[in-house]
Design a protein that fits this description.
There is one protein chain. By secondary structure, the protein is mainly alpha-helical. It is built from five helices and two strands, in the order ααββααα. Strands 1-2 form a two-stranded antiparallel sheet. It is elongated and about 70 Å long. The relative contact order is 0.20.
Amino acid sequence: MAAGGGGGASQGPVRPPVALAFATMGFVALLIFGLGMTSLAIGEDVIDTPGLGQVPGITGVASATLAFAGGLWAAIRRAGAMTDAAPSVPGTGPGRGGIGGPGAALTRHPSYWGAAWTTAASFLAYLGGVWFGAVATGADLGVATAVVGRLATSWFGLVVAGAAFVAAWSGVALVRTRARRPRWPWEDEFDE
């Protein structure tokens, strides 16, 4: 059965744009929740420098979200696409019932390494966004760099990277796996 009716190629249960939307929303939710709970648990503000306000945090989260969406989209955009360059298996070919013969096509599955690259991009974008936000609010370059250094080497940096990794891994898994939705026992048509 073709997912979405497109050319007979099954893309799995979740299309890449839908997986991107769900994973990005999940990333933002995990990031905000994680930073808030970490701040509560250790008794410190995320940005502990007086006078900076909320702008550095907002620009950091916005930058990290854009980097997350861009990195994840680069990893999953061609999921389910057909490739023409399938390797030949000796002894198989047209009419022999084998797979991988001339003209055979394979579907592409995104690599889970895309989650690692998306995590790195999101983490660096968060730090860069906080730095630019701090400079934009009038902080000195040294103060902005100190704020970013503290974020990168504290629990807050780990939360940003962890949220990005979990959400990116989930986004790749959504387009890669062939799982189906859960069904109640009474939904089966062959149930007696």
